[in-house]
TrEMBL record:
GO molecular function: ATP binding; metal ion binding
Positions of the UniProt region annotated as Disordered: 25-62
Name under which the protein is recorded: CoA-binding protein
ATP-binding as UniProt keyword: yes
PROSITE patterns attached to this UniProt entry: ATP_GRASP
Pfam family, any one: ATP-grasp_5
Superkingdom assignment: Bacteria
SUPFAM superfamilies linked to this entry: Glutathione synthetase ATP-binding domain-like, NAD(P)-binding Rossmann-fold domains, Succinyl-CoA synthetase domains
Domain ATP-grasp as annotated: residue spans: 544-582
This protein's UniProt keywords: ATP-binding, Nucleotide-binding
């Protein structure tokens, strides 16, 4: 610490149905196809890589022979009455017949199973098989046999692995290592028969592909087939010792029959793999709808910085999904309705929503909820309102929502009103909430809506609010239409329509951030690495040198080790000045009284120096000196930081800074890589965004400069991944437009 004012420097030793307008979208497969080191598909060796050596495109495993094998072995097959394996064997035989596969039972204790020749071992099979289903308690001993027989895929149903705790996790690790050596790909363990369900083959149109870590949670989506909605695949990933959610996501995103992917995710195996898979889906314009439950483990953090405390694991998952267009919903009913709508609905011709109802109260209620959720209900033009008043009494509002008063739906006027609304160029979606059956009005209205949906390329939605659901208008008229999207609740309709519009807007402007991810280290990284101190927290002075290396502006300042030097520095920096103690153990200096602001004279400088060094000595906090800094008095205080998530790696946080960061906790998270558009979108998520536009007479702040700082911090996070555990710039003062942004304080932690 600093010993005296003369100061020689010494050192001390962180359930409803949706059917909508059909359209099958074209798909483009990105990347080259090479053998996967674990069984087939696109190998990562051929893919472009970033500065950390990580691939920039998702490998696509060739899962065709998993879902449509030519030959199948059932290891542990049985036909003994009352045994669980018997029922599974029977189901697999039926499935193999449906997909045209040859099935071979394997069991050393039987000569035949269900009349089929049974083989003692996999080595005794009469042909090479594509898929082996393991009905054994311990699949590990069988893996080597499968490898020798060159089996492509295996499914392990056995439980007792990572889901049971530490011992089970160790057993799963051993299984995963054996699979990696074998060359095959494994589904499971702790999975089930969902991949081998009986799918309806009489349905057409784009399909939903389903991924679930819990088989039972996928059952509601699978049941959509009974309402006429096609499903093409079901991947029950289980414990994901090998094949994971990201593998199936990448594969489904390249399948021409898949219109949308629905996923129920309890935990992600690898964040980077998930991002690459979501990126592939976004490139191919395939919507992904997901229920994500649970919380990730964020790993050990020093949590010295504000951002380390504020960035929760689920906030990172949410940000990652949003960046890559994954639509996150909360319930299985929302998953059904949203995925079905996105799979089957045509691209919107306009983003405006018209609400049309029998009752003014119903329309107003729905319009309030829709507007609050962010849907745009444009006011219909005077000419359109005049046209509607030909059929609707003048005393009723037709501005949007449109109230028909009830009686027009029962005669010739009903179809004309619907057609007139759909003809308005500002309207892309027509929603008709029917809160309950009221024959003949509701029946006739349903018929007219179905007929209109056949005549238009625009989306027609109906909310059938009756809790009974047995009415003919619902069961036959609405559910019998492949062009009307039918919901049972206001909330699910609004969620699905918002997701539909958001997805197409996102897809139209999507550019993969991986395309612009840095491939080589910048000169800044080489400068920064010389400043890193493994296992240490950098002092403010050293942290600011790190920012300077990446072109981030800091105030004019000098580090001094005596009162006399402080006075000389103040005259060079220019009064008034700020003085701060600088040392590697000082995370929050203000609370300790180690910051002095507004100093305007040499005597104040000498007194402040003496007081700062005395406090540091009392707190036993070693210093590398005292900073004499330019005082920046005007601007919007922000925080920009880096933390490391155990799943996704480095993450970037931006929010309101200064004292507001801990009081309001108004922050947004970005998962690198991302571009300028995403950086600006992060600012748009802040509740206090208006402060940057200027409030109470303050001039607009330099948002462009703030965005540039966020992008430079992102580059730092990517290039120093593994060397920088945490970074906190707080406050970053954003000056008036055109004047830039200045990092007044910084903290950096090396792992």
């Amino acid at each position: 610490m600093l010993g005296s004012t003369h100061g020689t420097l010494t050192t001390h030793s962180r359930p409803a149905r949706v059917v909508a307008c059909g359209e099958q979208r074209p798909h483009t497969v990105h990347g080259t196809s090479e053998p996967h080191p674990g069984g087939g598909g696109q190998g990562t060796d051929a893919l472009d890589r970033d500065v950390s050596g990580r691939p920039l495109q998702a490998p696509v495993p060739d899962l065709d022979r998993f879902f449509r094998p030519e030959s199948v072995a059932v290891v542990g097959a049985s036909d003994s009455a009352g045994r669980p394996n018997t029922g599974i064997t029977r189901q697999l035989i039926a499935w193999a017949e449906r997909v045209g596969a040859r099935l071979h039972p394997v069991n050393p204790g039987r000569a035949e199973v269900f009349g089929r020749p049974c083989h003692a071992t996999v080595a005794d099979l009469p042909e090479a098989v594509d898929l082996a289903v393991l009905l054994v308690g311990d699949p590990l001993p069988v893996i080597e046999q499968l490898a020798e027989a060159k089996v492509k895929f295996a499914v392990a149903f056995a439980s007792g692995f990572a889901e049971t705790g530490e011992r089970g996790a160790a057993a799963q690790d051993r299984l995963a290592e054996a699979v990696a050596r074998s060359g095959l790909r494994l589904l499971g363990p702790n999975t089930n028969l969902n991949a081998f369900e009986k799918f309806r083959t009489d349905l057409d149109g784009p399909a939903i592909a389903l991924i679930t870590q819990s088989g039972h949670q996928g059952r509601p989506v699978f049941s959509l087939q009974e309402l006429g909605i096609r499903l093409s695949h079901w991947a029950p990933t289980g414990n994901e010792a090998d094949l994971e959610t990201a593998d199936f996501l990448s594969y489904f995103a390249t399948r021409p029959e898949v219109g949308a992917i629905a996923a129920y995710v309890e935990g992600l195996k690898d964040g980077r793999s998930f991002l690459l898979a979501a990126d592939r889906a976004a490139r191919n314009k395939v919507p992904v709808v997901a229920v994500k439950v649970g919380r990730t483990e964020t790993g050990a953090r020093t949590a010295a910085s504000h951002t380390g405390k504020l960035t929760g694991a689920d906030a990172v998952v949410d940000a990652a999904m949003r960046q890559f267009g994954v639509i996150r919903v909360d319930g299985l009913d929302e998953l059904q309705d949203t995925a079905a709508l996105l799979a089957r609905a045509r691209k919107p011709l306009a983003e405006g929503v018209a609400v049309y109802s029998i009752s003014g109260g119903t329309g107003a209620h729905f319009a309030d909820l829709a507007t609050a959720a962010g849907l745009r209900l444009p006011t219909l033009g005077d000419a359109k309102q005049t046209e509607l008043h030909q059929w609707i009494p003048d005393y009723l509002s037709v501005a949007n929502p449109v109230d028909n008063g009830g009686h027009p739906v029962g005669d010739w006027r009903g179809p004309k009103i619907i057609d007139a609304l759909l003809a308005d160029p500002s309207i892309g979606v027509l929603i008709c909430p029917i809160t309950g059956p009221f024959p003949p009005m509701s029946d006739k209205l349903a018929q007219d809506l179905v007929a209109a949906a056949e005549r238009t390329d625009k989306l027609v939605c109906v909310v059938w609010g009756s809790p009974v659901g047995t009415e003919d208008a619902y069961r036959s008229t609405l559910l019998g239409s492949s062009r009307v999207a039918t919901f049972r609740t206001f909330a699910n309709c609004i969620t699905a329509v918002r997701a539909y519009l958001d997805h197409h807007r996102f897809a139209a402007g999507y550019r993969s951030p991986f395309d612009d991810a840095p491939r080589v280290l910048s000169p800044s990284a080489r400068k920064a690495r010389a400043l890193m101190r493994p296992g240490q927290q950098l002092s403010e002075h050293a942290a600011k040198q790190l920012l300077r290396a990446y072109g981030i502006r800091v105030p004019r300042e000098q580090l001094v080790t005596s009162a006399a030097a402080a006075v000389r520095a103040a005259s060079l920096v220019g009064y008034p000045v700020v003085m701060k103690a600088s040392g590697p153990q000082l995370a929050h200096k203000t609370e300790l009284g180690l910051v002095k602001v507004g100093l305007t004279s040499a005597s104040q400088i000498r007194d402040a120096y003496r007081e700062l060094t005395d406090i540091a000595r009392y707190e036993d906090a070693p210093l590398d000196g005292v900073l004499v800094c330019q005082m920046i008095e005007r601007g919007v205080e922000m925080v920009v930081g880096v933390t490391r998530d155990s799943l996704f790696g480095p993450t970037v946080t931006v929010g309101l800074g200064g004292v507001l960061v801990e009081v309001l906790r108004d922050v947004a998270v970005g998962v690198p890589p991302f571009g300028e558009d995403q950086a600006r979108a992060m600012l748009g998520e802040l509740r206090g965004r208006a402060l940057l536009d200027g409030v109470r007479g303050a001039p607009p702040a330099d948002v462009d400069a703030l965005v540039e700082v966020v992008l430079r911090v992102q580059r730092m996070a990517l290039e120093l991944d593994g060397e920088l555990a945490e970074l906190d710039i707080n406050p970053l003062v954003v000056l008036e437009r055109g004047q830039g942004a200045v990092a007044l304080d910084a903290l950096a932690v090396c792992p």
